[in-house]
Design brief:
Order of helices and strands of chain A: EEH
Distance between the termini of chain A: 40 Å
Largest sheet of chain A: 2 strands, antiparallel
Strand order of the largest sheet of chain A: 1-2
Distance between the termini of chain B: 45 Å
Radius of gyration of chain A: 19 Å
Number of helices of chain B: 17
Largest sheet of chain B: none
Shape of chain A: rod-shaped
Low-confidence stretches of chain A: 1-10
Radius of gyration of chain B: 23 Å
Order of helices and strands of chain B: HHHHHHHEHHHHHHHHHH
Shape of chain B: globular
Mean pLDDT of chain B: 90
Mean pLDDT of chain A: 76
Oligomer: heterodimer
Strand content of chain A: 15-25%
Largest interface: A-B, 37 and 43 residues
Chain lengths: 48, 461
């Protein structure tokens, strides 16, 4: 992940915003992980 | 509503660009529900006393509207920015569920056509393209990875919506414990309203999290000169109006159309196809209905993971090369599937999984391919126009496969040989797509937008 960024040609360090970043990824990651898990459970029948 | 304007969504200095992919995913995970309509299809057939085809029209209208609205609204999305686009998409998508639920509660099928199909379909189209050009601008160093992450959500949306919808239907229907239970219309109506509330929250989260980069922004360490070195990657810009006049646009259109048509051919028939492939001489299949359902789930994962993995890989290989893999290797795999797929279940499953991952990869890679050819200026609008290939393939794929299979025999009597003509037709399509992709060359300079400095120097001259 990039730690710095250019804005209008000038170096501007990226704010860490770890909490906000984690929350955003958790909000989309948990439902996605749930969906993949449920599907894999169903897929197990294929190899059972 | 000024807070939705593009100007109000310009990222402040130091904004972390990795907040943009989850915002995009939030929208795509919601609209990806469109692929989970089979969960309540039987319930709607029973509730309305309609045929499967009549209920299937709901989904068909939604997909046609997806293509049309993406094509028509693409320029509007590029002009107004992702926040307003995501907000508008949320209003249409959620509005579609609400109108649809009224149709279900009042037993008016036409209201479900209007709601979920027409209104919701517009939300699908706007939502699908809303984050694409923004992601490409935030990730000029890895556009394939960025669009792959978002468009993966469209594949993943159904994986979430299917089990959640099944659980909610059971919770809303007091008769869910009965043998041979089919959900009541009332339960489906309540499901629609619940999904509307959840999707509204998620899509608004996406709309208010997304930001556009300030003019001139670029990621640290990113050297545009390296991008310029790639033959097919332009540093020029082509407008959407001019893009559709180029040979390149239509060659990519054909490549996408062929890739999607071939993928839909398998997806549409996934469950009955694996059973038919392993049908014994006594008419019974070695593959049970439960195992076939597991196979469909596996294909969904292949579709979703292919969107991310292959699109991210295209940042290394280049877009044209990865499309050669989708179409060329895809044609070879389809041929092996047609001729030897019935020899072993494991071989069949692996082949189908890789083929479907190519199908997903084609969707996720194409925005970056367009960026390479036409620049970032109106890439969202160009992408919207290209998605008409999806709509066309959505009609052509099932028509080809069902038409050929109908001529081979009745469902339940088909075997592996019955599928060979359909699969070999898909091989021919993939070869056409391969040739079209092979012919893609850089866009002629006469289609490029004038650069400001060129305009100035010509005025000085």
């Amino acid at each position: 992940m990039s730690s710095t960024a250019h804005t209008h040609g000038a170096h501007e360090p990226v704010k860490k915003s770890t909490g906000r970043l984690a929350l955003a990824w958790v909000l989309v990651g948990i439902p996605l992980a749930y969906g993949v898990f449920q599907t894999l459970t169903q897929v197990a029948a294929l190899f059972g | 509503m000024g807070f939705l304007d593009r100007d109000h969504s310009i990222a402040p200095p130091g904004f972390n660009r990795w907040l943009v992919p989850p915002a995009a995913l939030a929208v795509h995970l919601c609209i990806g529900q469109a692929y989970a309509t089979s969960v309540y299809k039987t319930a709607l057939v029973k509730h309305f006393g309609a045929s499967l085809t009549e209920v299937g029209v709901i989904f068909s209208i939604a997909i046609v509207m997806l293509g049309l609205s993406a094509a028509v609204m693409g320029t509007w999305v590029d002009t107004n920015g992702p926040r307003k686009a995501m907000f508008t998409s949320a209003m249409f998508w959620v509005g579609g569920f609400v109108i649809g639920s009224v149709g279900i509660f009042t037993r008016q099928l036409w209201l479900v056509y209007l709601g979920y199909g027409f209104v919701g379909g517009i939300g699908l189209g706007i939502g699908y393209i809303s984050p694409v050009s923004t992601l490409i601008k935030w990730f000029p160093d890895r556009p394939g990875l960025a669009t792959g992450m978002a468009i993966m959500g469209f594949g993943g949306g159904a994986l979430i919506a299917s089990p959640v919808s099944q659980a909610l239907l059971k919770a809303y229907d007091p008769n869910s414990g009965a043998q041979g239970w089919v959900a009541s219309g009332d339960a489906v109506g309540k499901l629609f309203l619940t999904l509307a509330v959840v999707y509204l929250a998620y899509m608004l989260f996406g709309a208010f999290t997304v930001r556009v980069p300030a003019d001139g922004w670029r990621p640290a360490g990113f050297d545009p000169a390296k991008v310029k070195a790639a033959k097919l990657v332009t540093t020029e810009n082509v407008s959407a109006r001019n893009a559709i006049k180029t040979r390149q646009f239509w060659l990519v259109w054909v490549a996408l159309f062929c890739n999607v048509t071939a993928g839909i051919g398998i997806l549409e028939q996934a469950a009955p196809m694996i059973q038919d492939f392993f049908r014994q001489s006594d008419g019974k299949s070695l593959v049970s209905a439960g195992v076939a359902a597991g196979f469909v789930g596996l294909l969904s994962i292949g579709n979703m993971s292919g969107r991310f993995a292959w699109s991210a890989t295209s940042d290394v290989t280049g877009r044209k090369r990865i499309y050669m893999v989708y179409l060329g290797v895809g044609a070879v795999l389809y041929t092996v599937l047609a001729l030897a797929g019935s020899s072993a279940t494991a071989l069949y499953v692996v082949l189908a999984f890789v083929i479907i991952s190519f199908y997903g990869g084609g969707f996720a890679t194409v925005p970056a391919y367009l960026r390479d050819l036409f620049g970032t200026y109106q890439v969202g609008a160009i992408h919207g126009r290209l998605l008409t290939a999806w709509s066309a393939a959505g009609v052509a794929g099932p028509l080809i496969v069902n038409g050929i299979l109908d001529a081979q025999g009745k469902p339940g009597q088909l075997n592996a040989a019955s599928y060979q003509p359909a699969l070999l037709t898909m091989v021919a399509l993939l070869i056409i797509g391969f040739v079209a992709n092979l012919l893609v060359k850089p866009v002629d300079a006469r289609f490029h937008e004038p650069r400001p400095e060129r305009r100035t120097s010509s005025m000085e001259a």
